[in-house]
From TrEMBL:
Residues 217-458 form the Glutamate/phenylalanine/leucine/valine/L-tryptophan dehydrogenase C-terminal domain. This is Glutamate dehydrogenase. NAD(+) binds at residues 224, 255. The record marks 180 as: Important for catalysis. Keywords: NAD, Nucleotide-binding, Oxidoreductase. One of its GO terms (cellular component) is cytosol. Homohexamer.
Amino acid sequence: MKTSERLSDSYTDLARQYVDKVFEIVQSRNPGEVEFQQAVKEVFDSLVPVLAKKPHYIKQAILERIVEPERMISFRVPWIDDQGNVNVNRGFRVQFNSAIGPYKGGLRFHPSVNASIIKFLGFEQIFKNSLTGQPIGGGKGGSDFDPKGKSDVEIMRFTQSFMTELSKYIGPDIDVPAGDIGVGAKEIGYMFGQYKRMRGGFESGVLTGKGINYGGSLARKEATGYGTVYFVEEMLKDKDLSFEGSTVVVSGSGNVSIYAIEKAQQLGAKVVACSDSGGYIYDENGIDLSTVKRLKEVEGKRISEYVKEHPQALYVQGFSGIWSIPCDIALPCATQNEINENAAQVLVSNGVKAIGEGANMPSTLDAIDVFLSNGVLFAPAKAANAGGVSVSALEMAQNSARLSWTFEEVDSKLHEIMKNIYRESMNAAEEYGAPGNLVVGANIAGFVKVADAMIMQGVI
Ligand code: NAP
């Protein structure tokens, strides 16, 4: 063995020891926060080759600093329901990292929301936002409020109460929230109204995902779903594959799913299944998206209603069975950890060729191992679903310039951004000895820019 190889091995050992040591600190400082620990582990495991090559990151304690949010806010959200009862929910905002720009990330309203979920999402957001090439830091927030079954007036009262507290911590150059699960255009509108009222000024850049008539961007609604498909298209192209003629399964039937289905269909794919938290539909002729859009976007109904209008389709209760449907491309677009090791094995044995993560962390670490070890093309969330936040940053740019671009302009910028993220992730994977591994590539490409900015700004 040459001296240079021996040296490189010893740097790798050092880097591995450092990563393990910091991960132990993360476990002991964040007990029981399994989702947050899972997100950290995935990133840390990718970073060993970078730390071996750039040991000054170790000296600068970059990992110890990057896993600690700059600020974590937790607050009471009291509100009165239609029966006159007082309810109390918990609100969160994690302002994780502002090395390359103001904190940016969505708000999630779902009963499962807790500190661990918000921190995992905020941590991922740091690297995702860096990958977009735009000047945005990482943040995330939300509440354990369940918007399902609530009247419009209850949602308004809740969001006003939520924003009354959150408004103290955000601003167009400080922290810019957007939507996520359970937070769509309606909730953003109510929150924007309350923020404007509290500030006494029209700060359009404080939230993204706004209505088009008061500062929103065309193509923001479509951006995450379209972006995921654009990313997967690049990945397929490299292997001489395409959406054209492929069978696709998409989980969920919310914002990301609907526009992933739309773009996949435009590219000639047959999308045969989608779901909600109650169950999934299977339509072997291909899903009629106009029915799904009406049921979900307009009428707020369950996906089970689809089969009443399309009797040839099947509805199956239970959410996870969707992964037993044979397909060429699977796009998990609902929620975290929806594909476990077993589901991944079933997908592989049914011949799946590619996975594109539209949701955040939809595959467990074991599931990812199954895909990678079986040669399935795998587009990780951090890179593949970065289209939403990219167009949010374009919305901020339009707000600052007091301009609005056409749908085509925004969509073509989104397409270019997704192609760039794909290229940068592939290049980083190649440079650090894991050719073709987009999990490693996306983590490294996102990390290096943030770590360098942190070092340039001193120990803060
Ligand atoms: P959404 O519009 O609220 O839709 C979520 C969909 O997933 C719904 O069909 C929902 O079913 C289902 N779902 C939610 N929680 C579930 C659970 N615990 N088990 C099973 N199904 C569940 O949300 P979205 O904006 O599309 O977000 C979906 C995913 O994409 C999330 O992981 C989010 O973090 C990620 N993401 C979103 C954006 C964005 O721009 N919106 C950007 C990047 C990443 P029900 O209606 O029955 O609850």
